[in-house]
Amino acid sequence: MPPLAAQSPDTVESQPAEHEAYGSPAGQSNLAQADTGQIAVLLEAMAAELELQLHPSCKKLLDEWPAVREAYGVGAKLLTAGSTPDAARKPPDAEPAASKPVSAKTDAAKKSPVVEAAASKSSSAETDAAKKSPDAGSATANPSSPGATAAKPSQARLHWTTLSGLTLPRIALPRYSCPGDLLRWLLTENVPGQPPYAAGVFPLKRSDEEPKRQFAGEGTPERTNRRFHYLSRHDNAKRLSVAFDSVTLYGHDPGERPDIYGKIGNSGVNVPTLDDMERLFRGFDLCHPATSVSMTINGPAPILLAMYMNAAIRQQLAKFAAQHGRKPDAAEEEAIRTRTLQTVRGTVQADILKEDQGQNTCIFSTGFALKMMGDIQQYFIAHGVRHYYSVSISGYHIAEAGANPISQLAFTLANGFTYVEYYRSRGMAVDDFAPNLSFFFSNGLDPEYAVLGRVARRIWSTVIRDKYGGNERSQKLKYHIQTSGRSLHAQEMDFNDIRTTLQALLAIYDNCNSLHTNAYDEAITTPTEHSVRRAMAIQLIINKEFGLARNDNPLQGSFLIEELTDLVEEAVLAELGRIHHRGGVLGAMDTGYQRGRIQEESMLYESLKHSGELPIVGVNTFLNTNPAAALASDPELARSTTEEKETQLANLRTFREKHEAAAEEALERLKQAALGGGNVFEELMETVQVATLGQITTALFEVGGQYRRNM
């Protein structure tokens, strides 16, 4: 009924009888005479009937919720009272560690995995350290494992106190009183570590290490090794990320050819041999549970990955020899090799689909490149390689090529599901390979970037669960964020740090698993020592000084974030539908669909930037009145020297001369394995010990074909 002020006199006059029925003494008398007990019984019956229609999983969520709230709250009271429960660090995907009973009142609450996790488990916010599995728990808990250390207690503080004396929660929970509102929130958001993982795939962020992973690579392996030690010298966790030069990216050996010589060691490190890979990581224990290595390499990724695995094995063999004063015998060597493969952790990018769509470092034919990706994953399954990501499905380079955040996310997820379909077509079970898949996104300043991770996690977990029947570990999408390179400008370079800070804050708020912050001078050079220190400080200041970052789910509860999440998810699903109707990812690639979309979106961005409609401070607005001052004068440039180039040429000659006889036979075996349908990566593990990157690439061109773009 409309309010009385909005009703006509006729309407008002026609209603006294209705009001009299309830407000008059006669109406009250009638109501008093009604069988109120019967009404209550009818209402209870209706409620029971509706409850029976509720899906069992929904009823379970609602039934567990009081225990979840109590676990977070009771845990906080005990923690502030000084009795922090200790829980040995366990693999995030293992069963939650049993915690001491908080009280008799909460014993029942612990039956829920989320309750146990909230009360006793501090889990990882880092992509590679988060890969442990239930059957691999001893890798960190058993000191006798290669490179293992005794598990350290991890204190999961659920609240913290500000300087003003306020107590704030690490996980802020909703205060809904209506079961319908609560159920909608549980189904679309839920607490961190629970499906659909909108707030993150782990219950709590790791508190004993930062999520930073800084990208580095320049000159010779020795020079990059020094930079790695500089970047990680204050960190217990050694998170290394390798940038290769364009010579390596395209599968060439360093040489005197003019189009190769000038690129040796510029904008990345030059690594043509296994010996170079060993030099690159000298001084780092590649099997230590706190060490992980990410390698941004795609076309020749299987070759570089085989070099890395062999470098780790050689390192452990050398350690055995130093400890025992002798070389291991055949059985001991095989045991060391097996343990190394099952212990080493990190990521190789190896995403050939996005190379065709955005970055353009394809070298082998797409079909052969996909076969080698499948060979890597099958080798990982056969040898129990569970801590290393076999592919980093990358949207970053799609964004850098010009795609907007919607297209970046849609194309990346589509590529990911294509790999799932391909691996399943080769007989691999989804739960055997999905945990070895990781993702890599760019973060810009558009509003969509604020929800990129939460949308990706929701879509991935739902599809893996409902379409492919994957378990909880397979449903967890773990991803790395790098701040936008396209947002770095040569004009007013100092302003780039401000942009990077905002992008990093979005990534941390959205619970990314690892993060690289770009240096302000990357618009013109490989980062200098000064600029990379500033870039690392951005993350440290956010994580250590910025108060709200101490909360693990700051985005939840925002009306705007919830609406933006739904809008981005809808747009991404629509784009996935358009790709599906073009024959899937490979069919769309045949017509150049993804590249065309990226080019259109890049053109829009550039036109708006040049017209000034898209304001960029210091570039097209708020311009410096002194144009010369807007550009850096005599900036420090990181470039490889002539001496470094010559060093690489000399090292290459030494390696080739040493293995000249064995290389020819190994390359022939490799070609036969490829022609016979064998596992190419398994053969590469032997080939890289005696052959160079260029030699192997040339041999594989003969049997697998070179990349040719469809026109």
Short description:
This protein is α/β, with parallel strands linked by helices and 711 residues long. The protein is 51% helix and 7% strand. This is Methylmalonyl-CoA mutase alpha/beta chain catalytic domain-containing protein.
Structure description:
Residues 1-30, 82-156 are annotated as: Disordered. GO terms for molecular function: cobalamin binding; methylmalonyl-CoA mutase activity. Keywords: Isomerase. It comes from Paenibacillus agaridevorans. With 711 residues, the protein is an alpha/beta fold. Among the domains are: 215-622, Alpha-Beta Barrel (TIM Barrel), CATH 3.20.20; 655-704, no CATH class. The chain is 51% helix and 7% strand. It has a five-stranded parallel β-sheet with strand order 5-6-7-8-9, covered by helices on one side. Strand 3 (159-161) and strand 4 (167-169) form a beta hairpin. The longest helix is centred in the first third of the chain and has 25 residues, at 56-80.
